[in-house]
Design a protein that fits this description.
mainly alpha; 26 helices; 1% strand; single chain
Length: 494
């Protein structure tokens, strides 16, 4: 018993004589904290230097801990008091601090008045990281500063967009804020701002919601369609027009896409597909459907004609030698195709693709269109007999008469343009109705015989004398004028 009492007294005396100040730190106090340990560690100079990442472990008497003890200490929680598994006399509490823990404590300590922005330079200077990390932190710091200076209301953002100042749309996160931004852009009537906000909405909200909200705003729809047309986004443009039930615009868009195909065969197929998908089933587009049908049919006619004529020209056809083809007939307009067929295939039967009359019939050309075109082709070929056949119509009881649906003045204009002989031109000048009109056209084309005949018919002696004085000597017109002036059977106007 006496020995036990002695040991107890010795232990009490040992702890009473310890250099540990129990007022500041008590190992057996349940309220011990990291802050107490830190304060004690600082007083003993046990913390590592700020620049060193290694962990230093010391005893309470400032002596280093052996590797074995350090290993056992590291198995505990860093930053807390640890004990060796020996008896109470050999208890050696240690404190461990790493570099990152010390920095974290300094940044989060309530007593520290420095902000995150203030700590960034010090972190950069003490960090062993690369230059890229340093530049990234500096960039983020500048971006943070600029972001704090910006105002994020829809009104201020639209104002900055109009004035060309820096702005950001990414700060608007909710659907309501984005729609408010779009409504504000529409309200100020700025097309660039409207388009920019629409594209932002397209990227950040679901397509179904985007389409729904866009349909509720006709102004936004028009700007969006204009943007798609300008940037040739025809697929999206067609989808939007179909969604809006603007079938006519969608059909015309598809037609334009079809005719832009570089290959003729591909263009024919595209036109047929476009006709079937967008025109035939729309009653309001019946007229347009007929035009698309004629366009496709014209290409289907031009393709074999071009193929046949190119081979005939290569084989040395005399007509192609005399009048060489300047361009291909493919993709040419209807009237040009008719003129081509009238010029090179004017006598072909109606059952042939090259027949001008078959073209007139299939494409529903008027008589004026057909006569004008055929007359121009035959006049250039100097086919005067063909012109007469074209202008001859059957009358009653098998009789024939000269008829021109375009007017004989137009016939004379075409003949004069193709340098027709004077007797051919005079023949059709005499068929012009109206003496004054005939006289003016005959003077224009210098058909002296017709001018003299018309002046005699009008019994205008004075005008005939003036006109005869201008005629060249020995000309047929001058002789006719002199004979008329000497005639005693003509009753002139007084």
């Amino acid at each position: 018993m006496s020995s036990l009492r002695r040991e107890s007294q010795d232990e009490e005396e040992y702890w009473m004589k310890s250099r540990v100040n129990k007022s500041k730190f008590n190992l057996f106090d349940d309220n011990v904290t990291v802050e107490n340990a830190e304060e004690l560690a600082k007083s003993k100079k046990l913390l590592t230097q700020f620049e060193d990442d290694d962990v230093d472990t010391v005893n309470w008497d400032d002596t280093p801990v052996s590797s074995e003890t350090e290993s056992s200490a590291n198995s505990g929680v860093t930053g807390r008091v640890s004990f060796t598994p020996s008896s109470l006399e050999s208890v050696t509490p240690t404190v461990q601090y790493s570099k990152s823990q010390e920095k974290l404590h300094s940044l989060t300590s309530p007593s520290s008045a420095r902000s995150l922005e203030d700590e960034i330079p010090s972190y950069i200077s003490t960090s062993s990281g690369s230059k890229n990390l340093e530049e990234e932190i500096l960039y983020l710091r500048r971006a943070l500063k600029k972001a704090r200076e910006l105002k994020f209301s829809p009104e201020d953002t639209i104002r900055k967009m109009i004035l060309g100042e820096p702005y950001s749309l990414e700060v608007f996160r909710s659907k309501e804020e984005k729609l408010q931004l779009l409504d504000k852009a529409i309200q100020v009537h700025d097309g660039n701002a409207i388009t920019a906000v629409i594209l932002f909405l397209r990227q950040t909200i679901k397509p179904s919601l985007f389409n729904l909200e866009l349909q509720r705003r006709p102004v936004a729809i028009n700007h969006y369609l204009s943007y798609l047309r300008t940037h040739y986004d025809f697929k999206e443009l067609g989808d939007v027009l179909g969604m809006l039930n603007r079938t006519e615009e969608a059909a015309i868009l598809k037609y334009k896409q079809a005719i832009s195909a570089p290959d003729v065969r591909g263009k024919m197929n595209a036109l047929r597909g476009c006709l079937k998908a967008h025109f035939i089933h729309e009653p309001d587009l019946a007229h347009e459907a007929n035009l698309v049908e004629q366009h496709a049919a014209l290409l289907e006619r031009q393709w074999p004609i071009e193929d046949t004529d190119s081979k005939s020209e290569a084989q040395g056809n005399p007509l192609f030698k005399q009048f060489p083809r300047k361009v291909s007939i493919l993709n040419m307009p209807l009237i040009t195709t008719l003129y081509y067929c009238c010029f090179y295939h004017g006598r072909d039967a109606e059952n042939l693709l090259t027949s001008p009359f078959a073209i007139k019939k299939q494409h529903q050309l008027s008589d004026k269109q057909y006569v004008w075109t055929a007359l121009s082709a035959r006049s250039r070929l100097k086919q005067w007999t063909g012109i007469e056949e074209l202008l001859t119509a059957k009358g009653w009881f098998g009789s024939t008469k000269k008829v021109s649906v375009i007017g004989f003045d137009k016939v004379c204009e075409i003949l004069h343009r193709t340098s027709a002989p004077e007797e051919i031109l005079s023949k059709y000048l005499r068929m012009i109705d109206g003496s004054e009109r005939r006289l003016n056209i005959a003077r224009k084309y210098k058909c002296h015989e017709v001018v003299v005949e018309t002046l005699v018919y009008l019994r205008d002696r004075q005008e005939l004398q003036v006109y005869a004085s201008k005629l060249p000597p020995g000309s047929l017109g001058l002789r006719n004028a002199q004979d008329a002036l000497r005639s005693s059977t003509i009753k002139w106007k007084t």
